[in-house]
Amino acid sequence: MLSHPETGRSLTQYLGLTLRETSEPGAAHPTIEGDLARLDHMRAANGNVRAGALLTAADSSAGLCGGLAVLPGWVVTTNIMLHITSFEHVGPLRTCARVLRTGKKAVVTAMHIIDLGRDNALIADGVLTSAVLHPEGGPPNYPRPLVIDASTHDSWTTEELPDFLAVRTDGPSRLSIELNDRLRNPWGILHGGAIAALVDVAAEHTTGGVTTDVVLHFLAPGRVGPVAATVEPIGTRPDGTVVRVEIRDSGADNRLIAISVVTCRA
């Protein structure tokens, strides 16, 4: 049994992400909206909201959306693609997710993030694919229409994202985190949002740039830890430096659990 009383919800609560179902319960293609009212603890030194926070919010919103589409089953994220279109983040921000396609084994969900403080300007756009599973004990038991209120954190006292993850620097191109209960999802494995955030922090640490594009594939569950991110530059293009980020579970025979290609601009 996991010891942390809020296992599976800690990342959502850290973000202050309030989620709500905007489609009719039982709809074949559900929609979910999420609001991020407080942003200060998620900002980088240059003032923009960290790509890792946007990825985590997108994963939470789109994953929940996909889960509702396959009840009484549920989903686990297999890959996520996100393009950040703007770095002028005023806030509040809103995530919007809608299911594009459901199948027996997979769900495809589109998501985007808008800035309500900038006349609904688009700041990120992406797609998430999830695998359908049938967890022992059934799916999460949410009242419908679903509302999850996680907006109670005070942004002036909430730690910054790398501190929340407890990121440790192991070298110029390697970072690691411990796999504690608040970083696990309801199934006891490392939360996909935590992996996405680690990918972003590691890419920016190595390149000194700002993450603009992420393609992230989840290959296996992280169960033991420490979990390490290793960054390898693979090229440059007009919009930035391209790197490959490998995520491995050091405590499980260095098992490769995720791989990502990230573009960072100077």
Task: Write up what this structure looks like.
There is one protein chain. 17% of the residues lie in helices and 40% in strands. The chain contains four helices and 13 strands. The protein has a 13-stranded antiparallel sheet with strand order 7-1-2-4-5-6-3-10-13-12-11-9-8. α2 runs antiparallel to α4 (192-207). The longest helix has 19 residues, at 51-69.
Briefly say what this structure is.
The protein has 266 residues and is an alpha+beta fold. Helix content is 17%, strand content 40%. The chain is built from 4 helices and 13 strands.
Based on secondary structure, the structural category is alpha+beta
Number of helices: 4
- Widest sheet: strand order? 7-1-2-4-5-6-3-10-13-12-11-9-8
Q: Class in CATH?
A: Mainly Beta
Number of strands: 13
- CATH architecture annotation: Beta Barrel
Give the fraction of residues assigned to helices. 10-25%
Radius of gyration: 17 Å
Shape: globular
Average pLDDT figure = 92
The total tally of domains equals: 1
The H-and-E topology, N to C, reads as HEEHEEEEEHEEHEEEE
This entry's quaternary arrangement is: single chain
Distance between the ends? 44 Å
**CATH homologous superfamily placement:** Acyl-CoA thioesterase, double hotdog domain
Low-confidence stretches: 1-7
Topology-level CATH name: Porin
Instruction: Characterize the biggest β-sheet.
Output: 13 strands, antiparallel
**In percent, how much strand structure appears in the residues?**
35-45%
